[in-house]
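Q: I'm writing up a methods section and want to include an example of the input and output format. Could you take the sequence below and give the corresponding predicted C-alpha cells, formatted cleanly so I can copy it straight into the document?
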Amino acid sequence: MSKAFTIIRATPRGRGAVATLFLVGQDAFAILVPCLVFPHHDQNNATQGHSEDNAPVFAYFQLGNAREEVVVDFRRHNRIALHCHGGDAVVNAIETALVERGAVARTWQDWLAESGETGHFPHHKPLDRIQREAMQLLPFAETELTAKLLLAQYHGALSRRLEQMFQFLDCDKAEATAILDTLLQSYESGRHLTTPFRVGLIGPVNAGKSSLMNALLGFNRSITSQVAGTTRDAVSAKTVISGWPVTLIDTAGIRETSNPIEREGLSQMQTVIAESDLLLLVIDANAGQTGSLPEITSIPKRVPMIHVANKIDLFDQQATWPFQPHPDCVPVSALTGNGLDLLNDAISGKLHQSNVFGNSEANPAQTALIFTERQFSCLSSLRQKLEQGEIVSVISLKTALME
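A: Here is the clean output for your methods example:
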C-alpha cells in the first residue's frame, strides 16, 4: 500500500464542537473511502468522489464496531477535508485508523512550513515564507490587537515593507538603512505577539505590591494583608495592557531577614528581575523614612523600570512630595484606582521602543513588524554588512528571507 498520504489536524487539540482534518496526497481518496459508510442514496456517487450538487457529503467513519458521523469534502481527491465531532477521543481514533492504513500524521504548522502548500486554505495566491510564519503563529495570538497585527503580516505588511527596502538598497542606502533600523526596532514588540511581556513588581515590604497587582488585573490574585512580608513566593497572572498580553509577577518584599522562607522569596525575586521586560519599583508614598525611592544595585541596566508611589489616598496633600529626584514617578492608589490609567500608559510606553505599537490609534492592518527570531537574525546580519560597507546581494537576501 502506498504511503503518499498526510493527515493534518487543522483545529486545536482539546474538546470542541467540530474538528477538521485535511487529508493530503495522491492516495488520500483511495485510502479514505474504504473507511467510510455512506447513506444508501449517496453510495454510488460518493464512492466515485462526487455528489449530485458537487457539495460535501455525510458519511459514517467505521471505527471497529462503532461508527462516527463525518462530513467529507472530496471534490479534490488529493486534498480532502474531513469534519467530525470535536472531542479528542474521536479525532485521535480517526487519525489512528488512517495512520494504520499508511498515512503520516503532521501538525498543520509543520506541514505548511516544510511544504509551502496553501491549497487547503482560503488563499488567493501563494504565500511567501514570512506570510507562512505569520499564519503558523496566528492561532497563538492572545489578544485581538496581536491577532490583527499577525493577520497584517499574513496579508503581506512586512513583505511589502521589505520589498521597499530591497528597492532602495541599490539606489539609496540611507533610506534602506532607515527602513531596516525601524524594522529591527520593532522586534522588541513583535516577539511578544504570542509571548506575553513580563512585568515584575518589586519593592520594600508593605508597599502594597500585591494590592497594586490585583488592581491592575481587576481581580484578587495575590493575597494582601497589613502584615509586612505576606508575599513570600513569586505570584503571576496574565492581563492585557494597551492590547498586548502581559504577565504580572508579584514578588516578596525587600528587607533584611534571617527567615529561610523569606530569603528564598528574595532569591526568586532576583530571578524575576533577571527575566523581566520591565520592573515596577513600588514604594509606600507615606513611608516616613523614604526621602527618595530605594535603589536596588542588582537590577540590570538593560531592564527598564518605572517608579511607582502607592497609597497616595493616604498621603497628606499639604506635605512636601518626597520624590523630587524621580520626576517620572507615577503616583497611584491601588485601593481607589487613582493613577492606574497613567500607570498603564507608562507601562505601555516603556515596553514598546516604537510608539507605533503602544499607540492604540495606529492601524494594525498597515503596521509592518518583525516577529520571529529568524527574521531578526537575518536583518541584523544585513545591518552589520551595510555598516561595514560590504556588498549585499538583493537576490540572495530576498531568497533567505522570503522563499
